[in-house]
Write a structure and sequence with these properties.
By secondary structure, the protein is α+β, with helices and mostly antiparallel strands. It has helices spanning about 1-25, 100-150, 155-200, 245-250, 390-395; strands at about 40-45, 45-60, 65, 75-80, 85, 90-95, 205, 210-215, 230-235, 240-245, 260-265, 270-275, 285-295, 305-320, 325, 330-335, 340-345, 345-350, 355-360, 370, 385. The strands form five sheets. Strands 2-10-13-12-11-14 form a six-stranded antiparallel β-barrel. A hairpin with a 2-residue loop joins strand 16 and strand 17 (about 340-345). Helix 2 (about 100-150) runs antiparallel to helix 3.
Amino acid sequence: MFGLQRRLGLAALALVLGSAALAADENADGGVKVRLPVVTVTAADRTEVVARIPVSGTLVPREEVLVYPQINGYAIEKINVDVGDRVEAGDVLAVLNDRTLNAQLTQAEAELQRAQAGVGQAQNQIDSTRAAKDEADAALERNETLGRSGNVSQANLIKAQSAAASARAAFASAQDGLEVAKAQVVQATAQRELAALNLSRSQIAAPVSGIISARSAKLGAISASGGDPMFRIIRDGEVEMEAEVIETAFGSIEVGDPTEVVTAANSTVDGKVRLVAPTVDQVTRLGVIRISLESAAPLRTGTFASGWITTDRHMATTVPASAVLTDLEGSYVQIVKDGVVEKRQVVAGLLSEDGRREIIRGIEEGETVMARAGLFFRSGDRVDPVTAAKSAESASQ
Protein backbone atom coordinates (compact mmCIF):
# COMPACT_ATOMS: atom_id res chain seq x y z
CA MET A 1 0.00 0.00 0.00
CA PHE A 2 2.84 2.34 0.89
CA GLY A 3 4.65 1.52 -2.39
CA LEU A 4 1.59 2.33 -4.50
CA GLN A 5 1.19 5.71 -2.78
CA ARG A 6 4.89 6.44 -3.43
CA ARG A 7 4.58 5.69 -7.17
CA LEU A 8 1.48 7.88 -7.47
CA GLY A 9 3.31 10.72 -5.76
CA LEU A 10 6.27 10.52 -8.14
CA ALA A 11 3.97 10.53 -11.15
CA ALA A 12 2.19 13.63 -9.91
CA LEU A 13 5.56 15.36 -9.32
CA ALA A 14 6.70 14.56 -12.87
CA LEU A 15 3.47 15.96 -14.29
CA VAL A 16 4.01 19.21 -12.40
CA LEU A 17 7.66 19.53 -13.52
CA GLY A 18 6.74 18.82 -17.16
CA SER A 19 4.07 21.51 -17.08
CA ALA A 20 6.59 23.95 -15.67
CA ALA A 21 9.12 23.15 -18.42
CA LEU A 22 6.56 23.61 -21.17
CA ALA A 23 5.50 26.87 -19.63
CA ALA A 24 9.15 28.03 -19.73
CA ASP A 25 9.35 27.31 -23.47
CA GLU A 26 6.18 29.12 -24.41
CA ASN A 27 6.32 32.26 -26.53
CA ALA A 28 4.48 35.41 -25.67
CA ASP A 29 1.62 34.27 -27.87
CA GLY A 30 1.48 30.90 -26.10
CA GLY A 31 3.30 28.90 -28.88
CA VAL A 32 6.14 26.48 -28.13
CA LYS A 33 9.65 27.83 -28.86
CA VAL A 34 11.93 25.41 -30.85
CA ARG A 35 15.62 25.56 -29.87
CA LEU A 36 17.85 25.31 -32.99
CA PRO A 37 21.37 23.84 -32.96
CA VAL A 38 24.03 26.53 -32.77
CA VAL A 39 26.76 26.32 -35.45
CA THR A 40 29.85 28.45 -36.04
CA VAL A 41 29.93 30.02 -39.49
CA THR A 42 32.50 31.99 -41.44
CA ALA A 43 32.68 33.68 -44.82
CA ALA A 44 34.62 32.33 -47.77
CA ASP A 45 37.46 34.81 -48.17
CA ARG A 46 39.96 35.49 -50.92
CA THR A 47 43.38 34.89 -49.42
CA GLU A 48 46.86 33.94 -50.56
CA VAL A 49 47.47 30.23 -50.95
CA VAL A 50 51.03 28.95 -50.63
CA ALA A 51 52.06 25.41 -51.57
CA ARG A 52 55.27 24.24 -49.90
CA ILE A 53 57.14 20.94 -49.91
CA PRO A 54 59.28 19.93 -46.92
CA VAL A 55 62.83 18.80 -47.69
CA SER A 56 65.83 17.64 -45.70
CA GLY A 57 69.36 16.88 -46.76
CA THR A 58 73.02 17.76 -46.43
CA LEU A 59 75.14 20.80 -47.20
CA VAL A 60 77.62 19.96 -49.97
CA PRO A 61 80.05 21.90 -52.18
CA ARG A 62 78.44 23.13 -55.36
CA GLU A 63 81.60 22.07 -57.19
CA GLU A 64 84.60 20.37 -55.58
CA VAL A 65 87.91 20.50 -57.45
CA LEU A 66 90.52 17.78 -56.86
CA VAL A 67 94.19 18.77 -57.07
CA TYR A 68 96.61 15.97 -58.06
CA PRO A 69 100.34 16.28 -58.86
CA GLN A 70 101.02 16.11 -62.59
CA ILE A 71 104.47 14.61 -62.18
CA ASN A 72 105.28 11.50 -60.16
CA GLY A 73 108.22 10.54 -57.99
CA TYR A 74 109.28 13.88 -56.48
CA ALA A 75 109.32 14.71 -52.77
CA ILE A 76 107.09 17.45 -51.35
CA GLU A 77 109.40 20.14 -49.96
CA LYS A 78 106.95 22.89 -49.00
CA ILE A 79 103.21 23.27 -48.24
CA ASN A 80 101.77 26.79 -48.30
CA VAL A 81 98.09 26.27 -47.37
CA ASP A 82 95.92 24.34 -44.95
CA VAL A 83 92.29 23.35 -44.60
CA GLY A 84 89.99 26.38 -44.48
CA ASP A 85 92.33 28.74 -46.31
CA ARG A 86 90.90 30.76 -49.18
CA VAL A 87 93.02 30.69 -52.34
CA GLU A 88 92.97 32.37 -55.73
CA ALA A 89 93.48 30.64 -59.05
CA GLY A 90 97.21 30.27 -59.67
CA ASP A 91 98.29 30.41 -56.01
CA VAL A 92 101.08 27.94 -55.20
CA LEU A 93 99.72 25.34 -52.80
CA ALA A 94 102.83 23.14 -52.50
CA VAL A 95 106.35 22.82 -53.97
CA LEU A 96 108.10 19.62 -55.09
CA ASN A 97 111.84 19.00 -55.18
CA ASP A 98 112.96 20.40 -58.57
CA ARG A 99 116.72 19.77 -58.73
CA THR A 100 116.37 16.87 -61.13
CA LEU A 101 113.86 18.82 -63.21
CA ASN A 102 116.24 21.78 -63.45
CA ALA A 103 119.02 19.49 -64.67
CA GLN A 104 116.69 17.99 -67.28
CA LEU A 105 115.80 21.46 -68.51
CA THR A 106 119.49 22.43 -68.80
CA GLN A 107 120.21 19.25 -70.74
CA ALA A 108 117.26 19.91 -73.08
CA GLU A 109 118.44 23.46 -73.73
CA ALA A 110 121.94 22.20 -74.59
CA GLU A 111 120.46 19.64 -76.98
CA LEU A 112 118.43 22.36 -78.65
CA GLN A 113 121.55 24.48 -79.16
CA ARG A 114 123.36 21.50 -80.68
CA ALA A 115 120.49 20.86 -83.06
CA GLN A 116 120.42 24.50 -84.08
CA ALA A 117 124.17 24.36 -84.78
CA GLY A 118 123.56 21.27 -86.90
CA VAL A 119 121.19 23.29 -89.07
CA GLY A 120 123.99 25.78 -89.75
CA GLN A 121 126.40 23.00 -90.61
CA ALA A 122 123.89 21.43 -92.98
CA GLN A 123 123.38 24.79 -94.69
CA ASN A 124 127.14 25.20 -95.14
CA GLN A 125 127.31 21.71 -96.61
CA ILE A 126 124.60 22.63 -99.10
CA ASP A 127 126.52 25.73 -100.17
CA SER A 128 129.72 23.71 -100.64
CA THR A 129 128.09 20.94 -102.63
CA ARG A 130 126.17 23.43 -104.75
CA ALA A 131 129.47 25.04 -105.85
CA ALA A 132 130.97 21.64 -106.65
CA LYS A 133 127.85 20.68 -108.59
CA ASP A 134 127.92 23.90 -110.60
CA GLU A 135 131.63 23.38 -111.42
CA ALA A 136 131.05 19.77 -112.48
CA ASP A 137 128.08 20.76 -114.63
CA ALA A 138 130.19 23.41 -116.37
CA ALA A 139 133.03 20.95 -117.02
CA LEU A 140 130.59 18.44 -118.43
CA GLU A 141 129.11 21.06 -120.74
CA ARG A 142 132.60 21.97 -122.08
CA ASN A 143 133.51 18.37 -122.66
CA GLU A 144 130.23 17.71 -124.43
CA THR A 145 130.88 20.71 -126.72
CA LEU A 146 134.40 19.53 -127.49
CA GLY A 147 133.16 16.01 -127.99
CA ARG A 148 130.77 17.10 -130.70
CA SER A 149 133.74 18.67 -132.60
CA GLY A 150 135.97 15.62 -132.00
CA ASN A 151 138.47 17.51 -129.84
CA VAL A 152 138.03 15.44 -126.63
CA SER A 153 138.47 11.76 -125.98
CA GLN A 154 135.58 9.53 -125.02
CA ALA A 155 137.30 8.73 -121.73
CA ASN A 156 137.44 12.40 -120.69
CA LEU A 157 133.78 12.84 -121.59
CA ILE A 158 132.74 9.88 -119.45
CA LYS A 159 134.89 11.16 -116.59
CA ALA A 160 133.17 14.58 -116.76
CA GLN A 161 129.76 12.95 -116.77
CA SER A 162 130.63 10.88 -113.67
CA ALA A 163 131.95 13.92 -111.83
CA ALA A 164 128.77 15.88 -112.59
CA ALA A 165 126.55 13.03 -111.40
CA SER A 166 128.56 12.68 -108.19
CA ALA A 167 128.34 16.41 -107.51
CA ARG A 168 124.57 16.38 -108.02
CA ALA A 169 124.20 13.44 -105.61
CA ALA A 170 126.31 15.22 -102.98
CA PHE A 171 124.16 18.33 -103.36
CA ALA A 172 120.94 16.34 -102.93
CA SER A 173 122.38 14.58 -99.88
CA ALA A 174 123.30 17.94 -98.36
CA GLN A 175 119.72 19.16 -98.86
CA ASP A 176 118.39 16.05 -97.11
CA GLY A 177 120.85 16.66 -94.30
CA LEU A 178 119.40 20.13 -93.81
CA GLU A 179 115.88 18.67 -93.41
CA VAL A 180 117.21 16.17 -90.87
CA ALA A 181 118.87 18.97 -88.93
CA LYS A 182 115.66 20.98 -88.93
CA ALA A 183 113.72 17.95 -87.64
CA GLN A 184 116.28 17.57 -84.85
CA VAL A 185 115.71 21.21 -83.92
CA VAL A 186 111.93 20.60 -83.71
CA GLN A 187 112.48 17.53 -81.56
CA ALA A 188 114.94 19.33 -79.28
CA THR A 189 112.52 22.26 -78.95
CA ALA A 190 109.71 19.91 -77.89
CA GLN A 191 111.99 18.22 -75.35
CA ARG A 192 112.97 21.59 -73.94
CA GLU A 193 109.32 22.67 -73.68
CA LEU A 194 108.47 19.40 -71.94
CA ALA A 195 111.34 19.85 -69.49
CA ALA A 196 110.20 23.42 -68.80
CA LEU A 197 106.61 22.22 -68.33
CA ASN A 198 107.68 19.51 -65.87
CA LEU A 199 109.72 22.07 -63.96
CA SER A 200 106.70 24.37 -63.72
CA ARG A 201 104.63 21.44 -62.46
CA SER A 202 106.92 21.13 -59.48
CA GLN A 203 104.86 24.01 -58.09
CA ILE A 204 101.36 22.70 -57.35
CA ALA A 205 99.07 25.62 -58.24
CA ALA A 206 95.38 26.14 -57.49
CA PRO A 207 93.38 25.60 -60.69
CA VAL A 208 90.44 27.66 -59.37
CA SER A 209 89.64 30.16 -56.64
CA GLY A 210 87.93 28.81 -53.54
CA ILE A 211 88.38 27.32 -50.09
CA ILE A 212 90.64 24.38 -49.20
CA SER A 213 88.27 21.73 -47.86
CA ALA A 214 90.76 18.86 -47.42
CA ARG A 215 94.51 18.26 -47.54
CA SER A 216 96.32 14.95 -47.76
CA ALA A 217 99.73 16.33 -48.79
CA LYS A 218 102.50 15.93 -46.21
CA LEU A 219 106.09 17.16 -46.18
CA GLY A 220 108.47 14.54 -47.50
CA ALA A 221 105.79 12.48 -49.20
CA ILE A 222 106.45 11.39 -52.78
CA SER A 223 104.12 12.82 -55.39
CA ALA A 224 101.85 10.32 -57.13
CA SER A 225 98.89 10.86 -59.41
CA GLY A 226 97.11 7.81 -57.98
CA GLY A 227 95.40 7.62 -54.60
CA ASP A 228 93.97 10.58 -52.70
CA PRO A 229 94.27 14.09 -54.13
CA MET A 230 96.75 16.40 -52.50
CA PHE A 231 94.08 19.07 -51.96
CA ARG A 232 90.31 19.50 -52.36
CA ILE A 233 88.97 22.97 -53.19
CA ILE A 234 85.38 24.19 -52.90
CA ARG A 235 85.16 26.32 -56.02
CA ASP A 236 84.43 29.97 -55.13
CA GLY A 237 83.48 28.73 -51.64
CA GLU A 238 79.94 27.99 -52.84
CA VAL A 239 77.99 25.60 -50.61
CA GLU A 240 74.52 24.32 -51.45
CA MET A 241 71.98 21.82 -50.14
CA GLU A 242 71.45 18.40 -51.66
CA ALA A 243 68.10 16.85 -50.79
CA GLU A 244 65.97 13.89 -51.81
CA VAL A 245 62.27 14.36 -52.51
CA ILE A 246 59.60 11.68 -52.79
CA GLU A 247 58.42 11.08 -56.34
CA THR A 248 54.83 12.23 -55.65
CA ALA A 249 56.09 15.75 -54.91
CA PHE A 250 59.12 15.66 -57.21
CA GLY A 251 57.16 16.55 -60.32
CA SER A 252 55.91 19.87 -58.94
CA ILE A 253 59.42 21.22 -58.25
CA GLU A 254 61.01 23.45 -60.88
CA VAL A 255 64.37 25.16 -61.21
CA GLY A 256 64.16 28.63 -59.67
CA ASP A 257 61.54 27.81 -57.01
CA PRO A 258 62.28 29.84 -53.85
CA THR A 259 63.34 27.96 -50.73
CA GLU A 260 63.86 28.53 -47.04
CA VAL A 261 66.55 26.37 -45.43
CA VAL A 262 67.37 25.95 -41.74
CA THR A 263 70.95 24.81 -41.10
CA ALA A 264 72.32 22.79 -38.21
CA ALA A 265 73.38 26.08 -36.59
CA ASN A 266 69.65 27.00 -36.51
CA SER A 267 70.14 29.83 -38.96
CA THR A 268 67.61 30.43 -41.73
CA VAL A 269 69.03 30.87 -45.23
CA ASP A 270 67.10 31.83 -48.35
CA GLY A 271 67.82 30.10 -51.61
CA LYS A 272 66.35 28.68 -54.77
CA VAL A 273 66.27 25.36 -56.58
CA ARG A 274 69.31 25.18 -58.90
CA LEU A 275 69.07 21.63 -60.21
CA VAL A 276 66.35 18.99 -60.51
CA ALA A 277 67.57 15.50 -61.39
CA PRO A 278 66.00 14.07 -64.55
CA THR A 279 65.49 10.64 -62.94
CA VAL A 280 64.05 9.08 -59.77
CA ASP A 281 65.72 6.19 -57.98
CA GLN A 282 63.82 3.00 -58.79
CA VAL A 283 64.41 1.52 -55.32
CA THR A 284 63.92 4.45 -52.95
CA ARG A 285 61.46 6.34 -55.24
CA LEU A 286 63.32 9.54 -54.39
CA GLY A 287 64.66 12.24 -56.69
CA VAL A 288 67.69 14.46 -56.01
CA ILE A 289 67.59 18.25 -56.09
CA ARG A 290 70.23 20.90 -55.45
CA ILE A 291 69.41 24.20 -53.71
CA SER A 292 71.74 27.18 -54.03
CA LEU A 293 71.98 29.21 -50.82
CA GLU A 294 72.42 32.94 -50.26
CA SER A 295 74.37 33.31 -47.03
CA ALA A 296 76.95 35.83 -45.90
CA ALA A 297 78.00 33.53 -43.05
CA PRO A 298 80.21 30.51 -43.82
CA LEU A 299 78.32 27.24 -44.28
CA ARG A 300 79.86 23.94 -43.20
CA THR A 301 79.67 21.11 -45.67
CA GLY A 302 78.49 17.75 -44.38
CA THR A 303 76.04 19.25 -41.89
CA PHE A 304 72.31 18.50 -41.83
CA ALA A 305 69.79 21.01 -43.15
CA SER A 306 66.03 21.08 -43.63
CA GLY A 307 63.56 23.49 -45.11
CA TRP A 308 60.72 24.19 -47.48
CA ILE A 309 60.36 24.67 -51.21
CA THR A 310 57.61 27.06 -52.31
CA THR A 311 56.14 25.57 -55.46
CA ASP A 312 53.10 27.82 -55.86
CA ARG A 313 51.75 31.10 -54.51
CA HIS A 314 48.49 32.70 -55.69
CA MET A 315 45.25 34.32 -54.55
CA ALA A 316 42.15 32.10 -54.28
CA THR A 317 38.81 31.66 -52.52
CA THR A 318 39.45 29.75 -49.29
CA VAL A 319 37.55 28.34 -46.32
CA PRO A 320 38.76 26.70 -43.10
CA ALA A 321 40.04 23.19 -43.80
CA SER A 322 37.54 21.85 -41.24
CA ALA A 323 34.71 23.17 -43.41
CA VAL A 324 35.48 20.69 -46.19
CA LEU A 325 34.19 17.12 -45.95
CA THR A 326 34.55 14.22 -48.37
CA ASP A 327 32.20 11.37 -49.18
CA LEU A 328 31.70 8.95 -52.05
CA GLU A 329 30.50 11.77 -54.28
CA GLY A 330 33.54 13.96 -53.63
CA SER A 331 34.29 17.02 -51.51
CA TYR A 332 31.58 19.33 -50.21
CA VAL A 333 30.92 22.19 -47.79
CA GLN A 334 27.78 23.13 -45.90
CA ILE A 335 26.44 26.56 -46.86
CA VAL A 336 24.26 28.40 -44.32
CA LYS A 337 21.84 30.88 -45.84
CA ASP A 338 18.99 32.45 -43.83
CA GLY A 339 19.55 29.83 -41.15
CA VAL A 340 19.11 26.90 -43.57
CA VAL A 341 21.84 24.35 -44.35
CA GLU A 342 22.72 23.54 -47.97
CA LYS A 343 25.16 20.79 -48.95
CA ARG A 344 27.30 22.13 -51.81
CA GLN A 345 29.69 20.00 -53.90
CA VAL A 346 33.04 21.73 -54.46
CA VAL A 347 36.41 21.14 -56.08
CA ALA A 348 39.04 21.57 -53.36
CA GLY A 349 42.61 22.63 -54.07
CA LEU A 350 45.69 23.40 -52.01
CA LEU A 351 45.82 23.28 -48.23
CA SER A 352 47.63 26.35 -46.93
CA GLU A 353 49.78 26.43 -43.81
CA ASP A 354 47.33 28.69 -41.97
CA GLY A 355 44.72 25.91 -42.03
CA ARG A 356 42.65 27.18 -44.95
CA ARG A 357 41.65 25.13 -47.99
CA GLU A 358 41.48 26.47 -51.51
CA ILE A 359 38.12 26.08 -53.28
CA ILE A 360 38.66 25.96 -57.01
CA ARG A 361 34.99 25.66 -57.95
CA GLY A 362 31.66 25.43 -56.12
CA ILE A 363 31.32 28.54 -53.96
CA GLU A 364 31.85 32.25 -54.37
CA GLU A 365 33.73 34.71 -52.22
CA GLY A 366 31.57 35.99 -49.35
CA GLU A 367 29.26 32.98 -49.07
CA THR A 368 28.72 31.70 -45.52
CA VAL A 369 29.84 28.18 -44.65
CA MET A 370 29.97 26.11 -41.49
CA ALA A 371 33.44 26.56 -40.05
CA ARG A 372 33.37 22.95 -38.87
CA ALA A 373 31.06 20.87 -41.03
CA GLY A 374 29.07 18.07 -39.40
CA LEU A 375 28.07 14.76 -40.94
CA PHE A 376 24.73 14.81 -39.09
CA PHE A 377 23.48 17.93 -40.91
CA ARG A 378 21.45 17.60 -44.09
CA SER A 379 20.30 20.06 -46.70
CA GLY A 380 17.24 21.93 -45.42
CA ASP A 381 18.13 21.64 -41.72
CA ARG A 382 17.58 24.84 -39.78
CA VAL A 383 20.40 26.07 -37.53
CA ASP A 384 21.29 29.04 -35.39
CA PRO A 385 24.44 30.50 -37.07
CA VAL A 386 27.04 32.24 -34.93
CA THR A 387 30.12 33.91 -36.39
CA ALA A 388 33.54 32.60 -35.48
CA ALA A 389 34.35 35.80 -33.56
CA LYS A 390 31.24 35.52 -31.39
CA SER A 391 31.87 31.83 -30.86
CA ALA A 392 35.39 32.55 -29.63
CA GLU A 393 34.09 35.30 -27.32
CA SER A 394 31.50 32.98 -25.82
CA ALA A 395 34.11 30.26 -25.32
CA SER A 396 36.40 32.69 -23.49
CA GLN A 397 33.54 33.77 -21.23
